[in-house]
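> @MW can you paste both from yesterday?
MW: sure, first one:
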Amino acid sequence: MRTLKPNNRLSQDQLIKNCKKKLPKAQAELYNRYSSVLFSVCLKYAPNYAEAEDILQDAFMTIFDKVSQYKNKGSFEGWLKRVVINTALQRYRKPGVFNLVNEENIKEVEVEIEEESIPLDFLLKIIQELPDRYRMVFNLYVMDGHSHKEISTLLTISQGTSKSNLARARGILKEKIEMSQFNPRSKSHIQ
């Protein structure tokens, strides 16, 4: 007989074991326990809320199918996030989504903002509005800390394309921030 914690939640180890046995109650508990954290990861990669929901559902189908591959090494939550990121990347990894460019055309654009002056929901919104190819590279590089070499492998693009897409993403974000009400120098900020 399994041991329940006082709050009737399974331990993480027991939850994983039960999910490996494909027990529906364990799968439901896993979903309830981690869906909000994983949804925030989906929002980083999706262009909108509905796409993020689709990515989350696809990711959980993969998680339930592949949980037996988790070997209790490293963080389980980290493993779940990796599945979500891979699901998002597969969704947008299509021929022609990423532009090929020459490295000579790349202009690094620095986006300098005061983090406290711009609401997080606004930043998330403008990141979500980026074209897929720019948003993916931006999130992988800035948010997740991948190198251009790693990104080129994950997205099957050249390192130059990764650098270019990052520069373009930063340029678009900088322009949107400069034109927003959160920039003290923008016209929309002056009343």
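MW: second:
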Amino acid sequence: GLGNITAYGSTPWKHGLDIDLKKGDPVPSPATGKVVFAGNNKGFGKQVDSAAGIMRWYYDNVNKENWIKRPPLSYSVDGQFITPTSYATGFLYTYTPHIQGNKNFWTLWQSWFDQVYPDGTLLKAGGGSNVYILQDGKKRKFASMTALATRYDPKQIITVPSSELSRYDLGAEISLPNYAIVKSGSSYYLLDYDTKRPFASSDTVSDLGYHPDEILDVTNAELSSYKTGTQISTATANPLGEVIKLQENNSLYYLQENQYFPIYDEAILDTNFQHLSVTSVKISKLEGLVQGPPVKIKDGTLILVEGDSKVYVIEKEKKRHIASEDVFNGLGYDWDNIITVNEFTGIAHETNEPMYLRAGVTTIADLAPQIIEEQSISDLMVRTPMDQYEFIGTAFETPIDTYLIADYATGDILAGKNIDTVRPTASLAKVMTAYRLMKEGLNLNGSVTYNEAAHAINDSDFVQYRLVDGERVLNKHILEATLISSINAGARMLVSSISTEEAFITRMNEQLAAWGLIQTNLKDVYGGAVKNDTTAREYLTIFLNALSNTTVKAYMGKISYIYKEIKDLDGLPNHSDTHSNKIMHESDLSFSILASKTGYLHESGDNLTMLVQRVADGKKFVIITLGNPDHSNRFAEPKALSEWTMTNF
């Protein structure tokens, strides 16, 4: 009878609802032959009321009658032993003493009332540091940021109330880095997400080029949640697989073992194969291999299919339409995380049921009161009181708290709003760090070994550096990660090659004082502290001095980067990203961006500094915006301000 609720699509079958929750069976009428309900409980409302009465009777009598099922006793049901873990389950097996009937109830409950977020979603509780991934309806905790970053992009994390996380049962913890080589007893394995692939022997490990320093000693308990995959032998050319591009037609394929799998869109490379580089080969490479199904996008990925305005999320190789913008925002998704794929990729992913906000779900919109004492996140942002607003020149109407427009050639301030309000720098502080690093002789061809204890910022609100202890990266690439991706650990790594952080911060503040900047004070080298203070007027001086260094200017002007670690320990040597200022990726603007840096904290709002050049005549301007309250659309107002600048100055 449970299926009657959704019989014939979304329209309930009235006759079925009339008898849905009955006890006993409908009987045929001798007069008409039609099925009728014996008794006077016809009607869905009466049925629900009767069911509630039966539940009340159960709780009143559960300890009085031995035949009533209850925890923690075990019972034989349909030839299997079941042990209720709660009185609710005990009631279900008392009322319906059949395994299949209770499984049907569980399935319906899961479908209608339980899981909201799809498998593959990364979640963390507001105010907490633990990050979980949803798999098979359970939440699995990442024991470290390395375990997370080697599998998923931390930018995909959604912050939810702790009450929302509590809806999910706890699954096995994820403690080991992905693609790690591990040794348990005398056995060696390659970890591939939830699979452990055994090596044929210890000699196989060394024959394939793995160094003993790369191998992690683990316990059987740590591997208990991994299923065993195919064996790796010396004949296995690429245990991690290989991504190839055919020289004849530019088609992409993923090769593993004796199969090849079509990749319909390059966007899949970033979501599924960041650990692999693309090799250009001739089509003869496919000879003798068996074609497999097309590569499906990783669970939890947001996609937009070309020619379709719908946004989907991928779950179990299928795409689920997110029903509306309100649902998208309510679930806490980020518009910047959507990738666009071609029509073939969209067709390859079967359409599954859409995503809605179900009743009773605590959404991201309800989150702030729980986390920060009745304040919304936007309320945390430092704001200039309206009665203290000050403008220079013609005012530009914007919700941004502070903006400044300056002539790059002369340094003259052409227009501004609240440019003397003291505000948190957020990651704009990294520009000063880069300036001092170059001034103090940073060797870009040198390198730094990553030390998680010394360099990591274990806060999932910040972009994480996908490195593990002992991996080594060239300084020039770390500087790219610091200024283009705004990775905090990168700044700390570079500073550690010069001096202690404390001494370096002291020298930065001495430099600021020498420039006459009395309102600016830095507490760290990456901008994470709320008390990294500046004003728009004083930050103009910092930015202009940084731009005078050709290296710093060039790095802030890079649209993207790609590089390899010089020492790789986790099988993920490749790094790539695009500039965190998304305006730099737009075309058809009246200006070009020559250098830029972004920053964000709850307390600072979104900050942005840019050196722009007008296309029409080549004139250059510095545009600084501090305290943009609209994080979801953080580039809209700075872009509008820049276009306004091109017209008015």
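> thanks! The chain has five domains: 2-112, 122-170, 181-228, 242-291, 386-648.
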